[in-house]
Write a structure and sequence with these properties.
homodimer; alpha/beta; Isopropylmalate Dehydrogenase; eleven-stranded mixed sheet; 44% helix; cytoplasm (chains A, B); acyltransferase (chains A, B); Phospholipid_synth_PlsX-like (chains A, B); FA_synthesis (chains A, B); lipid biosynthesis (chains A, B)
Chain lengths: 333, 333
């Protein structure tokens, strides 16, 4: 059995949605025990609707929370918040991993203050899995926003940690890594990309293929794409936005007349398949890789689907003991 | 009558494709006279296949060219290249505007050396038009790669020039402008975004709405999106890449069985409509806004559709006398 601390307070959609996701998800993992951290009354009310076997969860009551509208300062101000408490439970090893959908800046700061970094790692990065055009293949993209400004050493650290994650959790034996850049030539980009190219090329632990343009992110050509948090965030949001708008446009066009609607109905499954494949809600969890604890961030507006995706990723990380494997490797990187 | 200098040498697809585009496009603009700059023999051969009224073009023969695989140094080394010559024709006012699909870095350097900047403008930016979810509405996005590193004054300059362009060419009376950033709050982003936010907010000429996330670029909510060249290039390529991959996936899914193929055929027009709307080949021209001349860059792998799109944009810019309007405004910005 392993325990995951689940901050049910932070999301825009409320406690009930978080509990519903948990009640559906917990059936899929026999070893999972959930520690719900948050307002006891709200949790209990939700549990009357979405039942969970009482042997498989506990409640850690808290009185405050830090949601999407919170700030980095809340980590200091709200010592009794669900986010601070779930981080403290992880630090005390009372749980094996944690999940929150609360304010990102507070979560990053709190993770650094409370958990600290893995020895040998200077900065942690947000690492989501990106769905790709290749069936069942995801690409790791990091950092997507934990650090606005990075140096080449940070990017090298991201690449090393992601390599271990890819090997251990995704079972890729020799993960291929690229650097996100505005062109493939090694002279492209700002000083950061040029220096990072050199650092990544010369490290024997990294299977580095060179630069990659943003238009290839969804292609599934590689296992790991390395970038600074500002660039990664920009690229990720562009991808999400254009996918969403394009699917909407197709839907609009196909429902613009009665006849089209009838015809489109017969192809509904096909559209659904593509839209599911690239739906970022199925990939809404991001590991804050580099802090000393398995700490996942779920999307602030997480719905049942998103929460379940994050729960799945968190269980995968725990079951594959990825933190210890990264820590063991960190000394030898 | 106005004259556009057309460097037919630079593209990956050869002279014939460029001439074919010209022969089809020229019928749509009565005032247009084209000056083909490039290898005389190749141009003449192509013209035997794609005929153009001899009163509507001339040939300016050159012996060298700078294609996509060229470098910035070629501007100095290849004085007789079609790119250098077309820039010199523009400088000498023998033509009213120019188009090339050759190497971007060489084109940017050449434009600065030969044409110089508009007085009051420190840096020129690449400004494509981005198709949006709103019918017939395009958004101007700049810079998308002319400058890797910008400061807030550069971004303010881009916003001012784009405002004039939007008013004069796209006929938007009070164009709405946003700053591309990783969040909407004014404290988001790196130092550049924070400083640019202040500069854009306090300038009375700019109708500034604040920050905008990359996921909204295609939404058509605004007229102008301002960014530095590195970020803009990253965002644009993410958009292009994800649109292309998503449309491919849908196609793959819809043709995965005979029955699906038959059903999908009946909806072909609908797909075509959406895929045309967001096809970046229909928006493949980017104005290098800020240099003292109307100088357009077409995609390196321009096909007939792309060349025609760039020709259209170039004619629109000339017919609306946008350069002089920007220059007149530049003093009063």
């Amino acid at each position: 059995m392993y325990k995951i601390g689940y901050d049910v307070m932070g999301s825009d959609n409320g406690v009930e949605v978080a509990i519903q996701a948990a009640s559906e998800f917990i059936k899929t993992r026999k070893e999972l025990f959930l520690v719900f951290v948050g307002n006891e009354e709200e949790i209990k009310t939700a549990l009357t609707k979405y039942k969970i076997d009482s042997n498989r969860f506990s409640i850690y009551p808290t009185t405050e929370f830090i949601d999407m509208h919170g700030s980095i300062m809340d980590i200091r101000r709200k010592r009794n918040s669900s986010m601070v408490k779930v981080l403290e439970l992880l630090k005390a090893k009372e749980i094996d991993a944690m999940i929150t959908a609360g304010n990102s800046a507070a979560f990053i700061a709190g993770s650094h203050f409370i958990l600290g970094e893995i020895e040998g790692i200077k900065r942690a990065g947000f690492m989501p899995t990106i769905p790709t055009a290749i069936k069942n293949k995801v690409t790791l993209l990091l950092d997507v926003g934990a650090n606005m400004e990075c140096d080449e050493e940070d990017l090298l650290g991201f690449a090393k940690m992601a390599t271990v994650y890819s090997q251990e959790v995704l079972k890729v034996s020799n993960p291929q890594t690229t650097l996100l850049n505005i062109g493939v030539e090694e002279t492209k980009g700002t000083l950061l990309q040029k220096e990072a190219f050199k650092a990544l090329s010369s490290d024997p632990f990294i299977n580095f293929l060179g630069n990659m343009e943003a238009r290839e992110i969804l292609s599934g050509q590689v296992d790991i794409i390395i970038t600074d948090g500002y660039t990664g965030n920009m690229a990720l949001k562009s991808l999400e936005g254009s996918s969403k708008i394009l699917m909407n446009e197709i839907k609009k066009e196909l429902t613009s007349s009665f006849i089209k609607k009838i015809k489109a109905l017969t192809l509904k499954k096909s559209f659904k398949a593509v839209s599911e494949k690239f739906d970022y809600k199925n990939h809404s969890g991001a590991l804050l890789i580099g802090v000393d604890g398995i700490a996942f961030k779920s999307h602030g507006s997480s719905d049942v689907k998103s929460w379940k995706a994050t729960l799945r990723m968190t269980c995968d990380a725990v079951e594959n003991d990825v933190l210890n494997k990264i820590k063991r490797k960190a000394g030898n990187f």
